[in-house]
Amino acid sequence: MPQTKSTAIFVFHLIITIGAYFVPFLISWKIAVPVFVATILQHAVFGRCLLNAKHGLSENDGSTFYSEALERLGFQPNKETIRFFVRKLLYSLLTVVTLIWQVVLGNKPLWF
């Protein structure tokens, strides 16, 4: 049963991680930006993604959810490069894309 729970949490994490790339186009910047900022703060304050521990991912070797997912697909990613990109750049970039798409360009989110 623990393996099933761990797998379910991994799949949930995968869905929300992939979904983050669509957030700038689907959800209002008034919701999206605070969520992205919370993610950035989680990495800054705790030094990790708190959801990783829920599906058994140890970050001691530099792993991130992204490197774990890529390894499950058969790739051997550079964990340090992925960690830097995800923890330092990705969610800031998604925040900027959200603000440009919705505020600067005036596009409305598709959902809310």
Describe it for me?
With 112 residues, this protein is mainly α. It contains six helices and no strands. Helix 3 packs antiparallel against helix 6.
Features:
mainly alpha, single chain, globular, 112 residues
The total count of strands amounts to: 0
Quick one: overall form? globular
Strand content: under 5%
Instruction: Give me the Rg, rounded.
Output: 15 Å
Write the layout of secondary structure elements.
Blueprint: H1 2-20, H2 23-26, H3 29-46, H4 50-54, H5 65-72, H6 79-104
Helix pairs in contact: 3-6
In short:
By secondary structure, this protein is mainly α.
